[in-house]
Amino acid sequence: MTKLDIAKAKSELERLVELAKSGEEIIITVKEQPVVKIVPLREEKRPLKFGSAKGKITISDDFDEPLADFAEYS
Fold first, then answer.
1. The whole model's pTM is what?
2. Which of 16, 25, 47, 60 is the most buried if burial means most Cβ atoms within 10 Å?
3. What Cα–Cα distance (Å) separates residue 71 from each residue in 18, 40, 41, 44, 62?
């Protein structure tokens, strides 16, 4: 985490943005009090759509039959 005063942040904004993009958290202070945090934005994920995998998944008819490898445990 990087902390710096607002006056210094003004002159280094481009560098601070690059740091944030790489995952660094930047805290900007005014009179030594933290007031702003610069963090990278998270990529928005689109909401799941019910039924979007229809036809893409198949289950065999014998999926719940005992496996031959485990016959001795039955």
1. 0.55
2. 16
3. 60, 54, 53, 48, 15
